[in-house]
Amino acid sequence: MRILDVGCGIRKQPGSIGIDRNPAGRADVLVDLDRAPYPFAGGSFDRVTAIHVIEHLSDVVGAMEEFHRLLRPGGTVRIETPHYTDFSSFCDPTHKSHLTSFSFRYFGENHGGFGYYSKARFREISVRVKLLAFWRWLGFEFLVNRFPRCRLFWEHYLCYVVRGKAMEFEFEALK
Known about the structure:
alpha/beta; Rossmann fold; seven-stranded mixed beta sheet; 5 helices; 7 strands
């Protein structure tokens, strides 16, 4: 399995090809992550991971399109990013985007009428929201992740009280 670890930093996944713009990390290839195309042929990877990197990029839609180009048909992408209500989303001055659990809907079937922004299509495999420890302990995190309507209600009405911490997304590239 060929894995591309985008923005790998100093914690590159074992067995993956790591790309980053910072020479102080453990990247195999130095790349300006804001400039596509990355130096790989289309369909080169079975999996792309972007762990706490997409919020640093200037163009989230462009990054998703590049991930789509790099994946073989049926390949997967894993994205982790802070939830926009978490303190860490705003305390890092290099964060350019503050995302919700519905931010990637443009790339799926339920694009809310905005599917024309990109031709890259992904099938949502999973979305998991991590909440602050107190809310997890009370079982609220379980409800938010188990029932999509509960997650929608939480994100619309409660997320500034019951704050999110991070989000994990898993998508399959549709080609």
